[in-house]
Amino acid sequence: MMPALITHAEFSKEFYLFLCPILFTIGAIGLMIRKNMIVMLMCIELMLNSVNLLLVSFGNFFGQGDAHIFVFFIVVVAAAEATVGLSIILMAFRNLRSIDVDMFKKLNN
Amino acid sequence: MEAIVIIFISALISLFLGILKKPTLVMVVSIAGLAIGAIVQNYEWYFLNEKYQLLDFNDSNIQFLNLAVTLTGIIILSGYKHFMDEPATIGDFSALMLFSLSGGLCLIGFKDLFMFFLGLEILSIPLYVLAGSKKKSASSSEAALKYFYLGSFATALLLFGIALVYGTVGTFNIEKIGFISMLFTDQLPSMFFVGVLFMLAAMLFKVGAFPFHFWVADVYQGSPSVFMTYMSSVVKLIGIYAFYRLFGMMFPGVETFWTTLIVIAIFVSMFIGNLSALNQDTFKRLMAFSSITNGAYALMTVLTYKSGSDALLVYMVGYGFSVVALMTINMLVNDNDDKLSSLAGIGYKNPLIGVVGIVALLSVAGIPPMTGFFGKAMVFYQAFEENMWLVSFALLNSAIGVYIYLKITMTLMKKDDNAAVISLNWSQQLVLSISLLALLFGWTILYF
């Protein structure tokens, strides 16, 4: 069923209203249960991109350009965030020789 | 608008001046940039009164802008010694603080969700770097990691909320959304409320209130003291003011929905902050829990949007300058081991530190002649009409707070002849004197 749907150009708004929260939830759950920092970064990107998809589909629905411009800003910010995130991961790796988040438990009560 | 541009340019200049390894020059440039930016902005507000589509620095916004700029300048001054220790990176540190502040100014003056989102991100991303700026220390990189992951998660939540709200109302303009939520309160679909919930969660995260307060203590403890001061004064001030404007302007029609949730958040975070602060033995962690409690008090102004922002302004003058003064004293005494006990007798042997420390602690505890008292009194007085029992619990919490802060005062002023005599350089004397004046006479800001 799904491949036939995707080749078809017209989607209903409801399709995206179901797809985007599912993608967002996958990202959020991944961020919570995965221990590898790189995978967690990918999960954050997934969450941001699901929001992009939702915004684009809403903008299409309303026939406005606002949402499309907002998506450009989100892409730029996501790129900046990925840069900072990767450099922080690199720094953490230099200190502890690991990219497992469970290794970082020094600050605690 | 001009302030953002000028501060950004001065940040760029100080970034490249950092190559010369002359800390004094970099600091002069960044502080001059801050001063010129604020002066030009005030001039424009007072004489030209120009209007922009996405940004708006009107009466109350310009006051918060001035406060944020002043606090940042003082924090850069108070970090002079820290910066001197690492002359190679001074340019990066002060530039990142100014980049972050220019994002914060977007967040103070936003009229549109575009500007709100961009401001929040420009404010946050340099902070992730600053939190981890002690490159060799494992705890600093842990703080940066925690701040980065949780902050990005909050950003994603905020964006999802913005997308859902946009999907309902079809505009990003704050005033239009407020208008629609007032007019069509009964016809709003549940998607709108889910969006409001997501945005609320993200904002509670950014200001560090329950149920998203857990990162505050770890991040504040791990970050270098200068940037911890910046986070707990300027960022908190900007975050709460943005929260106040966002929810007050955007969702006045659906007030009953989100005020209940904010009341719960305030109630629990007051108790969490205070009860955790009771048995802390490190100073930065104590200040982190204190910032949770004080953030919760300040959040009460979100409930009373109609009464204006004066109470929040005076409260934040008191709290911000107290944090700066206390953290400056902490940086003087113990920068690395950060124990409360090593403060013992410092105020007794060094009169200036003693006086400023007592005034700052009394102000943050809310004892009458200080600015902190006036701020707290105004916030509580406004909120009393809205929600009586919340204010009574807040008063109970203030009483616990008085115990916590007076205990530190006792430690600071202990009669201990072996305590170190600390020589202050000019920048530290300047910071302490400005904080003292602001804490004693800061409430006069209302008459300007």
Write the layout of secondary structure elements.
The complex is a heterodimer of chains A (109) and B (448).
Chain A lengths: L1 H6 L5 H21 L3 H26 L3 H31 L13
Helix pairs in contact in A: 2-3, 3-4
Chain B lengths: L1 H16 L5 H26 L10 H20 L1 H6 L4 H20 L3 H19 L6 H32 L4 H10 L6 H18 L6 H9 L2 H26 L4 H24 L4 H21 L6 H24 L12 H4 L1 H15 L5 H16 L1 H25 L13 H16 L7
Number of domains of chain A: 1
Structural class by SSE content of chain A: mainly alpha
Distance between the termini of chain B: 22 Å
The number of distinct β-strands of chain B equals 0
H/E element order of chain A: HHHH
Number of helices, where a helix is a run of at least 4 consecutive DSSP H or I residues of chain B: 19
Mean pLDDT of chain B: 88
- Summarize the main sheet of chain A: none
Q: Low-confidence parts of chain A lasting 5 or more residues at pLDDT below 50?
A: 1-8
Structural key phrases:
heterodimer, A: 109 residues, mainly alpha, Helix Hairpins, 0% strand, disordered N terminus, B: 448 residues, 19 helices
Q: What's the short story on this structure?
A:
The complex is a heterodimer of chains A (109) and B (448). Chain A has 109 residues and is mainly alpha-helical.
Q: Would you write up a description of this structure?
A:
- The complex is a heterodimer of chains A (109) and B (448).
- Chain A contains four helices and no strands.
- With 109 residues, chain A is mainly alpha-helical.
- In chain A, helix 2 (13-33) runs antiparallel to helix 3.
- Chain A is elongated and about 50 Å long.
- In chain A, 31% of the residues are buried.
- The model of chain A is unreliable at 1-8 (pLDDT under 50).
- Chain B has one domain (2-447).
- In chain B, helix 6 (113-131) runs antiparallel to helix 7 (138-169).
- The radius of gyration of chain B is 21 Å and the shape is globular.
- Chain B starts with a helix and ends in a 7-residue tail after the last helix.
- Chains A and B meet through helix 2, helix 3 and helix 4 of A and helix 6, helix 7 and helix 10 of B.
